[in-house]
Design brief:
binds magnesium ion, Enolase-like_N, magnesium ion binding, TIM Barrel, 395 residues, 36% helix, binds D-gluconic acid, globular
């Protein structure tokens, strides 16, 4: 979902990402039916003023739909600010701390051999950080770009059996997932040694105590970080996780509100903030939390899967280049027609994400071409995650 903010100057417009893959229609309505009548005619220079106007005008605020709608406009206003200043956002924000942002991609496989081959492919592309996933061990975007977990967590030989009459869903066996993932991490570490940084995403699918135990079991593999070990609803358990293990902790893609990330930052219960920038309301709040996190020794690792638009990935990149406390950037390479639909996509090579020198965010949108690739409104399957006994769980 990309928002285009047009101005009174012909040809001068800004673009912003408001991508909420699973509920894009309400985001579209929030922008067109509510923010557009609120904003038309106002001064595009006043970004903070307009961000607060958009967020408070509905009285009830935040949440994924409104945050993504506000982000689309917010990023577009920053894009315009850069275009008017004739500077890329990384210059407008004080200049680069680094030439490019180190990235990680995903490696998965149904067998240890398949997983190793995929890791080797990543290393051959110059990658040094790789997120490991074994089988369908957690839902989410598979390395191929398709989103969704497999029938059972881990390889498909899970011992768990469904009860008679169990409802359809993306079945997941927590115990099988943890045991098979530890085996996979051990295999990859033994095969590739310390030439590689390992990351893993639990995807919030363990109970708190199992997540703490799993994080501790991961210590021997020296992960770069363990992501979403706990769900946002279990945020208070991060205190116990922190005192139980030295595994670095990353969380944030599901967060909507500062009340979710601030306790984890001010208590130093985590090591990386991983928000989905459009989900938290755009670049304006993301810049603020980056500076806050720096004071607490916490690094950034913005969410960057296949369901962030190239405008959003480029926005992440401007944050990454200017933050002293940048950690790592997740990247789903731009495949197929994407680079044509979005001219100016940042360039990925040898494990780094490079910006262009265009003003603003630096990515354009070919609307005519985009028309050929409509969004998919079908019912989401992979988020219908169920335990072996059929209990529906957080995906
Ligand atoms: C990640 C995320 C994704 C999400 C997906 C949801 O760390 O990249 O967990 O895999 O599952 O973005 O739509
Ligand atoms: Mg994740």
């Amino acid at each position: 979902m990309v928002v285009k903010v047009e101005t009174s100057e012909p040809g001068l417009y800004g673009l912003g990402c408001g991508t909420f893959t699973q509920r894009y229609l309400p985001v579209r309505s929030a922008v067109l039916d509510y923010l557009r009548p609120l904003l038309v005619g106002r001064d595009i220079a006043r970004i903070e003023e307009l961000w607060r106007l958009m967020m408070f005008n509905s009285y009830w605020r935040n949440g994924p739909v409104l945050n993504n709608a506000v982000s689309g406009v917010d990023m577009a206003l920053w894009d315009l600010k850069g275009k008017l200043a004739k500077m890329p956002l990384y210059d407008l924000w004080g200049g680069k701390c680094r030439e490019a942002a180190a990235v990680y991609q995903h490696a998965d496989g149904e067998t240890l051999e398949e997983l190793s081959d995929h890791v080797q492919q990543q290393l051959d592309q110059g990658m040094r950080h790789v997120r490991i996933r074994f089988g369908g061990s957690a839902a989410g975007t598979r390395a191929s770009g398709e989103t969704g977990g497999l029938a059972y967590g881990g390889p498909s030989d899970s011992p768990a059996r469904r009860p008679d009459g169990a409802l359809e869903g993306a079945y997941f066996d927590p115990r099988h997932y943890t045991l098979s993932t530890l085996k996979a991490l051990q295999h990859v570490r033994e095969r590739f040694g310390d030439q590689i940084e390992l990351l893993h995403d639990v995807h919030e699918r363990l109970t708190p105590i199992d997540a703490i135990g799993f994080a501790k079991d991961c210590e021997e593999f020296k992960l770069f970080f363990l992501e979403d070990a706990l769900s946002p609803e279990d945020g208070a358990w991060f205190e116990k996780m922190r005192s139980a293990t030295t595994t670095p902790i990353a969380v944030g893609e599901l967060f909507n509100h500062p009340n979710e990330w601030m306790p984890l930052i001010e208590n130093r219960w985590i090591d990386f903030i991983r928000m989905h920038v459009s989900q938290m309301g755009g670049l304006t709040p993301a810049r603020k939390v980056t500076a806050t996190a720096e004071s607490f020794g916490i690094r950034t690792a913005w969410h960057g899967p296949g369901d962030v638009s190239p405008v959003g990935h480029a926005a992440n990149l401007h944050l990454n280049l200017t933050a002293p406390n940048f950690g790592i950037q997740e990247l789903q390479p731009f495949t197929g027609p994407t680079p044509e639909v979005f001219p100016g996509c940042p360039e990925y090579r040898d494990g780094y994400f490079y910006p262009n020198t265009k003003p603003g965010i630096g990515v354009d949108l070919n609307e005519a071409l985009a028309e050929k690739y409509p969004c998919d409104p079908s019912v989401i399957q992979w988020t219908q995650a169920r335990l072996p006994d059929g209990t529906l769980v957080k995906p």
